[in-house]
């Protein structure tokens, strides 16, 4: 079992047998492909599988992205979400609480963290056949090399990762809720329950009669990927939150070329791409970290509905579970999305008393207030 850092991978010859994780870490080493992510990357080779690992020191820019910064994930992103809550009686007390939490997290150097299997996506997917007997050795290796860092695993939920989460807890990892995600179980193929929902059937009709042509990623040009970057920015950065990852067209294009992303685009009769999505998959789960569409077009065009339908169709055809991330909760519930609380598991037993205390307080706060709110408000 070993760690290989970016500079080491750049010295290695590229071969057809390189794993997707190997290709991904090498791609991250070759350039600034995600605009607001500041981290060092490494490859964890367990002897049976390989995983990308992110390493942050806690001195990165204040606007570092939540995919590597728990401080942004638990305070900065929460602060932005409060602006959209639309419930003034909750906004002010929660804003004050968020500000207090942010100061605590900064004091505890919560961003000094090593995260395993971190693909720098909103949702990381884990191989269902991961040998959990490797976890003690992985933990020991990272503690040896990073004695001042917390050790973390993001994006775990009990539907897809129950055994992994339980094993990490048994090893002493702290269980910290992060958000509520929506899953669509496509393992039954054409008999998948979500296909029976009224809104799902309406979306199918919309896509079937759409003037748009569905284009596979293999047929997209450089200019098309630049357009997709623009569409992603319109939705995730301008409409939602600037703290979301700033994925660049080169990153998307390299992902399609090397196989760690798979794109579909909606091209209108004039040849312009008005909507696109990028899939990331494991052998059991599919996610869609890239979704974008022209937000200036009339809502009746139904671009988001068509893209959602493409995701659901893909899950059914692959007979996999679609993890459709968080956000647009009511929209996803109406189409049969099943809510699951997502967690991060963090190892802190080796850290100083003060840093352990803040991590523990964060966990209790989110279990006591965050999770009940997510469930009650159906976020």
Write the layout of secondary structure elements.
Blueprint: E1 2-5, H1 6-10, H2 20-29, E2 40-45, E3 50-57, H3 70-82, H4 88-107, E4 112-116, H5 135-145, E5 150-156, H6 158-170, E6 174-185, H7 198-208, E7 213-216, H8 222-240, H9 249-258, E8 262-267, E9 273-281, E10 285-293, H10 303-318, E11 321-323, H11 329-333, E12 338-347, H12 353-376
Helix pairs in contact: 2-9, 3-4, 4-12, 7-10, 8-9
Number of strands: 12
**Span of the ends, CA to CA:** 40 Å
- In percent, how much strand structure appears in the residues? 15-25%
Stretches with pLDDT under 50, minimum 5 residues: none
SSE-based structural type: alpha+beta
Order of helices and strands: EHHEEHHEHEHEHEHHEEEHEHEH
Largest sheet, if any? 12 strands, mixed
- Total helix count? 12
Average pLDDT metric:
92
Based on Cα principal axes, name the global outline.
globular
The strand order across the widest sheet is: 1-2-3-4-5-12-6-11-10-9-8-7
Q: What is the helix content?
A: 40-55%
CA radius of gyration: 20 Å
- Please indicate the count of domains: 2
Task: Describe the overall structure.
The protein has 379 residues and is an alpha+beta fold. It folds into 2 domains: 2-181 and 340-376, no CATH class; 187-319, Gcn5-related N-acetyltransferase (GNAT) (Aminopeptidase), CATH 3.40.630. The chain is 41% helix and 22% strand. The longest helix has 24 residues, at 353-376. Helix 2 runs antiparallel to helix 9 (249-258), helix 4 runs antiparallel to helix 12 and helix 7 (198-208) packs across helix 10 (303-318). The chain contains 12 helices and 12 strands. It has a 12-stranded mixed sheet, sandwiched between helices.
């Amino acid at each position: 079992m070993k760690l290989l850092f970016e500079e080491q991978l750049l010295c290695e010859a590229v071969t057809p047998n390189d794993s997707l994780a190997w290709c991904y870490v090498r791609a991250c080493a070759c350039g600034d492909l995600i605009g607001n992510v500041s981290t060092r990357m490494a490859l964890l080779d367990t002897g049976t599988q390989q995983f990308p690992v992110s390493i942050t020191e806690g001195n990165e820019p204040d606007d570092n992205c939540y995919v590597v910064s728990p401080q942004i994930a638990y305070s900065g992103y929460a602060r932005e979400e409060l602006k959209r809550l639309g419930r003034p009686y909750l906004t002010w007390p929660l804003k004050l609480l968020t500000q207090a939490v942010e100061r605590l997290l900064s004091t505890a150097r919560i961003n000094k963290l090593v995260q395993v299997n971190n693909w720098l996506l909103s949702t990381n997917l884990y191989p269902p056949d991961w040998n959990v007997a490797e976890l003690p050795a992985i933990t020991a290796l990272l503690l040896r090399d990073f004695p001042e860092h917390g050790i973390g695993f993001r994006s775990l939920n009990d539907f897809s990762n129950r055994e992994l989460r339980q094993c990490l807890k048994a090893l002493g990892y702290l269980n910290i809720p992060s958000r509520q995600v929506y899953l669509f179980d496509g393992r039954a193929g054409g008999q998948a329950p979500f296909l029976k929902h009224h809104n799902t059937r309406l979306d199918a009709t919309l896509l079937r009669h759409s003037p748009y042509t569905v284009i596979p990623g293999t047929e997209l040009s450089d200019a098309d990927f630049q357009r997709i970057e623009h569409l992603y920015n319109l939705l995730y950065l301008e409409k939602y939150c600037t703290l979301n990852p700033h994925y660049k067209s080169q990153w998307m294009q390299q992902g399609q070329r090397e196989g760690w992303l798979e794109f579909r685009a909606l091209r209108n009769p004039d040849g312009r791409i008005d909507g696109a999505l990028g899939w990331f998959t494991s052998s059991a789960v599919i996610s869609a970290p890239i979704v974008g569409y022209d937000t200036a077009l009339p809502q009746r065009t139904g671009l988001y509905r068509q893209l959602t339908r493409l995701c659901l169709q893909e899950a059914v055809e692959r007979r996999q579970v679609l993890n459709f991330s968080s956000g647009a909760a009511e929209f996803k519930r109406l189409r049969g999305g099943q809510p699951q609380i997502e967690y991060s598991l963090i190892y802190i037993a080796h850290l100083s008393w003060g840093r352990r205390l803040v991590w523990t307080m964060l966990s209790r706060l989110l279990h006591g207030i965050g999770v009940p709110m997510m469930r009650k408000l159906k976020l």
